[in-house]
Please model this.
Amino acid sequence: MASTATFAESYDDTLGPVIFRPWARELIARAKPKDGEHILDLACGTGIVSREIIAAGIRPASLTGIDISPDMLAVARSRTYAPGIDTEWHVADAGNLPVADGRFNVALCQQAFQFFPDKPAALAELHRVLAPGGRVAFCIQREIEVNPMLNAQAVTLEKFAGPGAASAVRAICGLSDRETIRDLFTSGGFQGVAVESVSLTLHHPDARAYAKGAMGGMHTGDKMAGLPAEKRKAAYDMFCAELGDCFDGIAMTFPHVSHVVTAHK
Ligand SMILES: C[S@@+](CC[C@H](N)C(=O)[O-])C[C@H]1O[C@@H](n2cnc3c(N)ncnc32)[C@H](O)[C@@H]1O
Model:
């Protein structure tokens, strides 16, 4: 039976537990948001970082998620349970935040900066909305050569869904140069800029199920969904084979490598 889940729901269900929740914990450990602080989840998507903050038992004075996609925000709104916390969700471009100057003590931005079309404008806006001393933590995927799971996905999509689908995966790794990242933050007026390569070992107990969820609609439009069942099976088999040593015949365990940026105003 065809799935009726939206892209944003599939993203949250499939990628959230495997990839984005572990990274959210990593960012929280570095930015250390505290009770009573005003927190920004920039390009919040489906709200995974915000939910992880609440799951960690942190009680912010306010929690604001901003994303350009109304569909992603709709999932964030519907799936975030934050009783007693002043929670706001805004559809907006990172380069034009609908927020007063100096509003936030902490901003987290997970796997999104690489997609912002005007990065200096986004960092200028972030700087504006931070209070003096406000902390930021970003994670930005490193190059595809050190990310075997994404490489397996790109190679498989190239064959079965075409170059457009493959380049959408490669774009995830499109801002991998450490000095470029450092210069962007330093030029944006941030202090104490640190850019560290961090590798998390991530796991899914069923690589085929992951492939189905991650490639069944995301990055592919209708192309994978429109393939006959035997071709889709061949694509999932190819994805598993391309994982190499990261695939044990059932599960996948893989390094997922990003630059983590920490800085303050
Ligand atoms: C890979 S998702 C990450 C979402 C979320 N941070 C997470 O951890 O799951 C990238 C997000 O960036 C958002 N995005 C891309 N360009 C944006 C922009 N210019 N302004 C705001 N959000 C943007 C997308 O809509 C998407 O939700």
About this structure: Residues 7-264 form a domain with the Rossmann fold fold (CATH 3.40.50.150).
